[in-house]
Amino acid sequence: MYTFCYLMFAIPMQMATNPLPLGLLIILIGLLAVVLAYITFEVYLAWSLFRYSVKRAKKDDSADTAYVPEETLDWYKTVEEKKKDLFSRPHENWEMEHDGLTLRGIFFPAQEQNLSTRFAGGCAVVVHGWRDVRFSRAIDVILYLDSGFSVFVPFLRGHEPSGGKYIDLGCHYRKDLFAWIDQIRARSDNESPSFYILDGLSMGAATVLTTSGDDDLPRDVRAILADCGYSSFLEQGKWMIRGMKPIIRYPAFFFTLGFLRIIMGYKKSDPTPLTQVAKASVPIMIIHGEDDLFVPPPMGKKLHDACASELKDFWLVSGAKHAMSQRVAGDEYLARKLAFIEEALKRASDERGHS
What we know:
alpha/beta, Rossmann fold, eight-stranded mixed β-sheet, 47% helix, elongated
């Protein structure tokens, strides 16, 4: 940057009083052109990174599967089959006006044949990941319904069919989830859920973790479950571009942060999953795939270690890649989640009994 300023300002002033030899002048003009080209390239790269990260997700976007592992593609096929089962069950399409946007989601009422289970009366808010407009959490929804829960699945802002021009990587709008819980209460009349759990995957995991230490977290949220969430969008961004040469990586990241601040309003002082779990008291379970290359496993461990909740758990799923822990762990995935929720409910009951 010093070199650029020198070329732009100091040299022209010097030339005005002491003209330079033609050869040296050509060299300096060439250097200036190189510096300008370098900065232009870095700004363009930063803009491309920004757009890639936060561009609105639409249902008709073509999915590039060229670099998707075969096991992940097989999982997608399984999910598509489960979606047919899920949407054959009773459900309601909801929408609300919030913060100047129309937000949408789908509510699945608890099924009558499961109302005698130990989780009857509970509502699971199941939150999707980055750019997920395919309803890939259908399997989770079915498992919760079969366990006696009602389930609400919000479409996060920036994801069709909800409004929003940009995807909220920084979890600025985590309180959209609180607004949805208010909607569930208002629409449930006398059958309002007795407790809620928040369950998020990937970016959805980061979102629910960022609610954990929020002063406005509803008191009837009994547990938060987060699978492969990142500790902060800043750390995740650094991880994603780690393969670039330093001379390209550092300026591009600097300009990308500038776009995020100017356009999205993000600041370094914003709450992150990591800072919020450090203030949390709600029970938190963190799951992470051991072979996750998209969000590295140490982030999950870091989140668990920082978590202030008395009841917390960290499960590193051997052999699982990003968002594939359920596929790898099979029945154990749900069993461990339900065991954690049951313990959280027991503790909440004991606390109410002692108060």
